[in-house]
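User: I've been going back and forth on whether these two constructs are worth ordering. Before I decide, could you fold them both?

Assistant: Sure. I'll take them in the order you sent them. The first construct and its structure tokens:
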Amino acid sequence: MLDTLRSAWKVTDLRKKVIFTLVMFLVFRIGVHVPVPGIDVEAMKQATQGQLFGIFDVISGGAFRRLSVFAMSITPYINASIIMSLLQVVIPKLEQLAKEGEAGRKIIAQYTRYFAVFLGLVQAIGMSVALGRQGIFVSPGIGSYALVALTLTAGTAMLMWIGELITEKGIGNGISLIIFAGIVSRLPQGLSSMGQLFSVGEINILSIILLTALGLLIIAGVVAVNEGQRRISVQYAKRVMGRKVYGGQSTHIPLKVNQAGVIPIIFAMSLMLFPVQIARFIDHPWARAVESSLAFGSALNSVLYALLIIFFTYFYTAIVFNPMDVADNLKKYGGFVPGLRPGRPTGEYISRVLSRLTLAGAIFLALIAILPNFMIAVTGISSLYFGGTALLIVVGVALETMKQFESYLLMRHYEGFMK
């Protein structure tokens, strides 16, 4: 990995992309420390105590407890992306746009941006009204509510813009890298909190060693699953054209165990945080019931979280990989899977194999996501919010970004037939 980074730094184009990405990270971190105008910061910290807000604060990179301009993070955009993906299955017009290639995807991306701003505004209004009841405004009034709502919405829109800039001009997926940067930025504070707990005797050295061992096992498991493949053999028939013979070689179709990457975790986490976050600020008995039943660590929260991850793993895999299209392309170019007829039988076989692989990958993701509940019980570190999920996102995004580095380097140094 270090050799890849050193080689990338020597390439001018890649160096510019890396520097641009780091500059965008700097802008993100500066925005995290810019508070919304008219807010009592100390009152905000008191109003956002609890494990739910610890989780949300890690995702936002510490922006939520400060109620900075990036307090809502990128979650409205993620929720908008989820809803637009689901609508593509229901609305024929969106489905047709998705099949029109790059032009159609640009139109859908534009719709997603507008919808994300709308969702962000609705969420910001709810947050400003609810936080106003907690007494966090220096000068309560309609103007304060409107200022907070508009500032939070603008912050989300800016994060969305930064993420797209990183994807276009930087290296890696911008949205995933923003979440990655937020999680990594909280690591020093987490280690400091753990050191304080150790110094006062609330945890012992055995708990720290056990936590470190579990973390290393999770990292090894994430790497193994992300890199795991099932290879389906493909044979190409020989074709005689004039005096030349084409085809006849054998290759394979690599099917990844975790085809969806970290996207299902991010989607499921955003959906799980949203209702509890809203219920936390509503003064009503049913809101308290929702908050307690869906609180981090509860049985219902763990079950729903795991089921959502499994659902989104299948859903996203179905979007990014179509077995029937693969089978049709194989048939078109004279390829076939040994023992199977080209066309539909090949597509059904690939679909069955992919379904079994996706189930294994989805169960792994779900287990990693709910693992903190067991880690808290075993290690006794109650301030551990969602270490498994955080590690999964960090390692997954790091692996995907390194693959992009390698792809750029491969294209850069590929000489082809002519030197």
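The second construct, handled the same way:
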Amino acid sequence: MNSTKIRQALLIINPKARQDVGVQLDEGIAQLEQAGIAIERLLSNTPEDSRRAVLERKDHLDLVIVGGGDGTISSMAGTLHECGLLLAILPLGTANDLARSLGLCNGLEEAFDAIVSGERQWIDLGMVNDNYFFNVAHLGLGVKVTEELTDDVKKQWGVFSYLKAFFAAIARIKQFKVTITADGVPHRQRSIQIAIGNGRYYGGGNVIDEKKRINDGKLSLYSLRPQTVWDLLTLAPLLRDGRQRYNARVFNLQAESINVSTGRKVMAIHADGEPVTNTPAHFRVLPKALEILAPKPISMVE
């Protein structure tokens, strides 16, 4: 356990997050208060409100706890990094991919236990142009999946909502020309999907690369070459487990710095499920950028 005592914490909750955990939240907050941590609660409707609250209190905080989905948590990455504040998360979203990357796979009870235990780890952050992200950034098919993943789909399909969105997105996807320059080396190709990961998980438990960890100082990229729907379906199990390197229809690399250019065709880029920027784009990793409370060494997360 880290010897630095946590005394004052700001708990930011997205009011649109899961509504069935009120009792667990109250019990968890009581657990933190019994451990000597004073909790200020904030229901925040916008990232701007959350960032403003942190900036106003930064000199008096030992910890920021963010409760919500990956998009809510990701929206705070830059502010927490710039303020040098410790982060803990309460996974209250549909996918909770950052929680998976941190080994928080058993819900709120485990998340509150991690805060009380005080086990700290340093993780990397990804950047695309001027935007921070924890998990994965996409262009192509991944963006179409996000667009199909409406609130109604999430409510109706739950944990299967990403699968539903994937099949709907396949019908809309078109190939594009791209130049990928990784640590100074260019690769020119056609693609239907590019994913660049800082974290291990994305899209509701898919693995960006079987060897990826959120503290390894690298970005992992894969690009899907144009292929039929049937080819995509047969490739799906490898994509799910992060073993796409074993298929010739997928281009893979790891690098600290990656530039992606789609020529005259400007393409949208989404990171952690939210639209953030467009091509051309510069991706880079910020090693050990943020200190976070997590239950076990990230090198053991699978």
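Notes on the second construct follow. Residues 131-287 form a domain with the Tumour Suppressor Smad4 fold (CATH 2.60.200.40). The first strand starts at residue 8 and ends at 13.
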